[in-house]
Specification:
The chain has 198 residues and is α+β, with helices and mostly antiparallel strands. Helices cover 35% and strands 20% of the residues. The protein has 6 helices and 9 strands. It has helices spanning 5-18, 23-38, 43-53, 76-86, 164-174, 183-188, and strands at residues 2-4, 67-68, 93-99, 112-116, 119-123, 127-130, 137-145, 152-153, 159-161. It has a 7-stranded mixed β-sheet, with no helix packed on it. A two-stranded antiparallel ribbon has the order 1-9. Strand 5 and strand 6 form a beta hairpin.
């Protein structure tokens, strides 16, 4: 089934919040997934995979240094927000043990290249990708300036297709943000109740 980019962004935001991230980081995740889906990339699937598997992923120990690492895996959402704040083009960066690096891609900016394993992503007026970007963990990801464009150009779209398992995972995390139903809320008709007094 296909969904509007706004619907996917809202679901990604709620799912990320339900996974324990702050509302600010959840908002970043929603925008990240929307950007990826707009490029025709499986942003929702990547987020579902990340939320389902994240084990204490965190930001870099020393974000001002060009090499980013942490005691465990690096969180692509935290690293994405950091590189946006610091300026992607300011210095070549090496990210060690970055989880789901495709979730980092929307933050790198124009005329930048992101590379890991056999994957290369570059951005000019379009996003170009070579290799299979759906990598759960990359031991080394390099971010650098580059005017060269390699890989296949992504095709922009206005809707996103979510596989049933991806939708189920995101809905499972999103449900954690909903207030539990109480006897009082049932009696007062909160939500889609059976009593219509309009």
């Amino acid at each position: 089934m296909t969904y509007s980019l706004g619907e996917v962004e809202a679901l990604a935001r709620k799912a990320t919040r339900g996974a324990g991230f702050s509302w600010g980081m959840a908002d970043e995740a929603g925008k990240t997934v929307r950007w990826l889906c707009r490029q025709g990339l499986p942003g929702a699937a990547a987020l579902a995979g990340y939320l389902d598997s994240q084990q204490d992923a965190q930001g870099p120990d020393s974000p001002m240094l060009p090499d980013w690492s942490a005691a465990g895996a690096l969180c692509p959402l935290i690293c994405g927000a950091l590189v946006s704040d610091l300026g992607a083009a300011s210095v070549e960066r090496h990210l060690h043990n970055l989880a789901w690096p495709i979730l980092f891609l929307p933050h790198i900016g124009h005329h930048m290249r992101l590379a890991w394993d056999s994957v290369t992503c570059s951005i000019d007026d379009n996003v170009h990708i070579s290799g299979e970007p759906m990598t759960p963990m990359a031991s080394l990801v390099t971010l650098m300036q580059s005017q060269d464009v390699t890989g296949v150009a992504c095709t922009a779209t206005t809707r996103a297709t979510l596989a049933p398992d991806v939708l189920a995972t995101l809905n499972r995390f999103a449900a954690r943000t909903y207030a539990p139903e109480t006897d009082a809320s049932k009696r007062s008709g909160a939500g889609a109740g059976l009593k219509d007094e309009d």
